[in-house]
Amino acid sequence: MDLVIRGARVVDGSGDAAYTADVAIEDGRITEIHREGDAGPRPAGTRVLDAQGLALAPGFIDMHAHSDLALLRDPDHSAKAAQGVTLEVIGQDGLSYAPVDDRTLAEVRQAITGWNGDGSDIDFDWRSVGEYLDRLDRAHGGRGIPVNAAYLIPQGTVRMYAMGWEDREASPADLERMKELVAQGMEQGAVGMSSGLTYTPGMYAKDAELTELCRVVASYGGYYCPHHRSYGAGALEAYREMVELTRTAGCPLHLAHATMNFGVNKGKAPDLLALLDEALDDGADITLDTYPYTPGCTTLVAMLPSWASEGGPEAILSRLQDDGTAARIRHHMEVIGSDGCHGVPIEWDTIEISGVSDPGLASCVGKTIQRSADMRGEEPWVTARRLLINDRLGSTILQHVGHEENVRAIMRHPVHTGGSDGILQGFKPHPRAYGTFPQYLGKYVRELGVLSLEECVAHLTSRPAARLRLPDRGHVREGYRADLVLFDPETVAAGSTFDAPRTPPVGVPHVLIDGKFVIEDGRRTDVIAGRAVRRTA
């Protein structure tokens, strides 16, 4: 064999009790599992790794990632590889870079600069979903990408392509064009469709429009992954809307970063779970993902009311520069509660700047809008407006509006999976980008006992693999791909913190993709073994 992992504590992804075994690998596949006490000789290999004291699990699947350009930009990508992540699902929140034409590409690049950078270092030589996936496969001199990636068709980008940034109902011709784009993307290998229903222009879509697109996704065996219309004042209604919409369409549903945030939802996770359990008991196909932290992360411009974002980034900047319109925006945000802020009046002391596009604005990073305003002796809206204009909408934020009891309750649910929602840009990104999976294993398994080790690994491996319909990933089984992680259950922990968010995790010495070490003895190797994972029939 190419490699034998000797004497590991195998946590195989099924949720069943761990066991001790030797695991043999050849040509990127698991070829033999020899349990302790089995008859016959133990497997021999060209290389033998002593795994005593280490747990061996399938590679972790990040069900909500924002590495769309990072995979092309950074051959190291230790932010994810060092956590044990071997597969990311990108194209999230309804906004990404395929399918596009020249106009749409320019607009989406500006719209999500805060997520992925402006892309000035990227050769955007693709336009379709298939071309983007091909580009991933030939990245880094034809070697591929640092970890595997699956792609969701971004509904907001599709709408932008077909209709621009107009807040209007889709015409029959518009709808047919969008359905055609979704069908093409699915045929070319996408695993489903995402939406960002608090982001423009995706939020302008009515339920009937989304239902028709979901019918197309379902016909190809894909799933719908919405960032739905509210995580605040209308959260339960927004979850219910997505459940009913996808049941009408006959489409599997995966709820993105399924949180219950803001003061109005403190202690209300049981209400969400009861809603989901009722639908599941009635035959609905539903999964969800969460990250194990209370603050959220997005862009500052996302807080604006949707009407202020109609027409795209340049129209937003024009409105912000007009004193009368800016005053109206402020009223919606501070008094009414804008749809961009989930129907809740914004609390500036919960909005911390985590990154800026203009290095000259770096002094704002790590401070709340309220604190920056106090230091200047001005009102918070004045500070926020200036930052939006001067950074050309490129600022990212941490939004401190979560509740620990809700986080714990939701992660216990049987359909839960892990997703980092990790934005890698900015001077001070959310630590979830670098720490989500060790945080689950260290804090919520070992320290708090919210989940058992076996349960948690199943949440991070086999359950997402089942949602993605991957027949040979998510378990430690003979014949399965050797995408594996070895970690120490006694020491594994996230190193990243809010003060030092790029600190690597501890207790994850080895990570393999396609049977090759991408992390070895805790260090990143020069191996690039990831590929685009396309939808299977």
UniProtKB/TrEMBL annotation:
Give any Gene Ontology cellular component. Answer: cytosol
What superkingdom heads the lineage?
Bacteria
This protein is called what? Answer: D-aminoacylase
Q: Which Gene3D superfamilies match?
A: D-aminoacylase. Domain 3 (3.30.1490.130), Metal-dependent hydrolases (3.20.20.140), Urease, subunit C, domain 1 (2.30.40.10)
- InterPro entries the record matches: Amidohydro_3, D-aminoacylase_insert_dom_sf, Metal-dep_hydrolase_composite, Metal_Hydrolase, Metallo-dep_Hydrolases_sf
Class in the EC hierarchy, top level: hydrolase
Write down the EC number. 3.5.1.81
What residues does the Amidohydrolase domain cover? Answer: 47-519
One example of the protein's molecular function in GO is: N-acyl-D-amino-acid deacylase activity
Keywords in UniProt for this one? Hydrolase
Please name the source species. Answer: Streptomyces spectabilis
Q: Name one Pfam family in it.
A: Amidohydro_3
